[in-house]
Amino acid sequence: MAGEKHIMSPRIGWAIGVLTASCVALAFGFATLESLSAAPHPAQAPASAQGSAFPSAADIETYRNTVERLFLTDRGGTTPGMAACVMCHTWQTRPMRFSLETPATDAGWTPEQSRRNFDVVTKLVNTGNPDTSRLLLKPLASQAGGLGHTGGTYWTSREQPEYQALLKWIRSLPADKYVAAPGPSLDFTFFRSCVQQVFATPREGHIRCSNCHSGGLVGFAPPPQNGKSWSDEEAKRAFQSISRLIIPGNPEQSRFMLKPLHPDGGGSYTHNGVRRWQSRDDPEWQMLAGWVRGQKTGATCS
Ligand code: HEC
Ligand code: HEC
Questions:
Q1: Which one, of 209, 244, 246, lies nearest residue 230 by Cα?
Q2: Dist CA 258 CA 292 (whole Å)
Q3: N or C end of the chain: which has fewer CB within 10 A?
Q4: Ligand 2 lined by 218 (C-beta under 6 Å)
Q5: How far is the C-alpha of 216 from the C-alpha of 254, rounded, in Å?
Q6: C-alpha of residue 99 to centroid of ligand 1, in Å
Q7: Residue ranges of domains in the chain
Q8: Which atom of ligand 1 is closest in space to residue 217's alpha carbon?
Q9: What are the C-alpha distances in Å from 1 to residues 22, 52, 92, 185, 227?
Q10: Is the CB of 24 under 6 A from ligand 2?
């Protein structure tokens, strides 16, 4: 398998998009299957920050040398926790929120691309409270306060040099410019009454979410132990697990809302499971979106 050989070589290269699905599936494990659907490169809006004082060309250069260099770092493997961030976080993984440009050259991004990446990356930081930035908390081990990350654990503690380098960069940004707006909170009662109901009632001809999502990182829908309904404790664990795949306030970019949605309706390019919704007009999708936006609470579904 030539493709696999290529991807295993120390210099990773940017050939992900042209590899065959089976090669990458082997090399990466299931978590990254999505990264290989060859998506057309979408036209992009010009960077919103352009024209204002920050970021200057020098600021972009600093960002390239600290942050982007880290995104490119090859850690000697192709699995979660080892692969370079860029192998999963490019436009090919659309519609994830953390989607960088596909590097134009073997050496990485052009300065112009970096400027656009900068706008993506600064949505993942919180200059109001740098240590709570998602950019820092996703690759951080859960035992150290991390959020959990399909892409794996990169730092076992906050003391690690990469964490510290990113933290230092976030602290160097204008303090009031990249403050994350507090998202709405997800209602547990609604999850218990209405969201778990979705897992419990497969659509005709479909298999249950529970068949595949019963354990590990994607274990948000384990079957109830008593075979009938989930206990409070089971529900709480499932709630925590699914919360990781949701960006509160933003159903359009939440994995939970995208994976089971048909690609023609704006869903993910790949899901090794079912497509429960053909489009976002599906009333069930709308109901769940209302919950993700913090608008739906309590035990009334519909
Ligand atoms: C093997 C693929 C893979 C690799 C490698 C990977 N990630 Fe991820 N990452 C994902 C997936 C899938 C998600 C979405 C699901 C989740 O949030 O866990 C994600 C989510 C994220 C998020 C949350 C984005 C948001 O919109 O809130 C951040 C931040 C992030 N990753 C940072 C990184 C960094 C930094 C690296 C490199 C040190 C990295 N990732 C490496 C697959 C990967
Ligand atoms: C036939 C097995 C199967 C079924 C049924 C299935 N899935 Fe999946 N799902 C997978 C696999 C495998 C992955 C990981 C690879 C991928 O992303 O496609 C996944 C990934 C996901 C993810 C992203 C997880 C992450 O960590 O980024 C979400 C969200 C998801 N599925 C939701 C659902 C929902 C909701 C249902 C039920 C409506 C469902 N799936 C049914 C196999 C399945």
A1: 209
A2: 12
A3: C
A4: yes
A5: 19
A6: 9
A7: 57-172, 188-292
A8: 18
A9: 10, 49, 22, 47, 44
A10: no
